[in-house]
Amino acid sequence: MEIEVIRPKQFADMARDYHLLVDGKEIAVIRRGTTQTITLPEGSKTLKAVIDWCSSPEFQVCDIGSGKIVVKNSFASNFFKAVFLPLYYISLGKEKYLKIETSL
């Protein structure tokens, strides 16, 4: 199965790459502001994005309907969260730091 992975340009993490894991194995490095096509191995079940010690929750491959996903920082688009919650996201919320969403 081929999917298109989109990482928008966000100020947070602009100098760092995200790593995309499928069933716990790295299959791609996602750079800021890029769109790339990735072939998932047959029988893949979960996706997860990782940056340093932080990650996204696991995302089920069967939930990818359009063949496109967006991987982004979960707080960068909200000014309040970007100013007041970074310490939460790098400590207790480290598994919610990134977000994977389906793209329409």
Can you characterise this structure?
This protein is mainly β and 104 residues long. 11% of the residues lie in helices and 40% in strands. It has helices spanning 79-84, 86-90; strands spanning 2-6, 18-22, 25-30, 35-39, 46-51, 54-55, 59-60, 68-73, 98-102. Strands 2, 3, 5, 6 and 7 form a five-stranded antiparallel β-sheet that branches. A four-stranded mixed β-sheet has the order 4-1-8-9, with no helix packed on it. A hairpin with a 2-residue loop joins strand 2 and strand 3 (25-30). The mean pLDDT is 90.
Q: What is this structure, in a nutshell?
A:
The protein has 104 residues and is mainly beta. The chain has helices at residues 79-84, 86-90, and strands at residues 2-6, 18-22, 25-30, 35-39, 46-51, 54-55, 59-60, 68-73, 98-102. Helices cover 11% and strands 40% of the residues.
Sequence stretches where pLDDT stays below 50 over 5 or more residues: none
Could you tell me the mean pLDDT? 90
End-to-end distance: 18 Å
Spell the H/E element sequence: EEEEEEEEHHE
Question: What profile does the largest beta sheet have?
Answer: 5 strands, antiparallel
Strand content: 35-45%
Describe this protein with a few key phrases.
2 helices, mainly beta, 4-stranded mixed beta sheet, 104 residues, 11% helix
Topology:
Layout: E1 2-6, E2 18-22, E3 25-30, E4 35-39, E5 46-51, E6 54-55, E7 59-60, E8 68-73, H1 79-84, H2 86-90, E9 98-102
Parallel strand pairs: 1-8
Antiparallel strand pairs: 1-4, 2-3, 2-5, 5-6, 5-7, 8-9
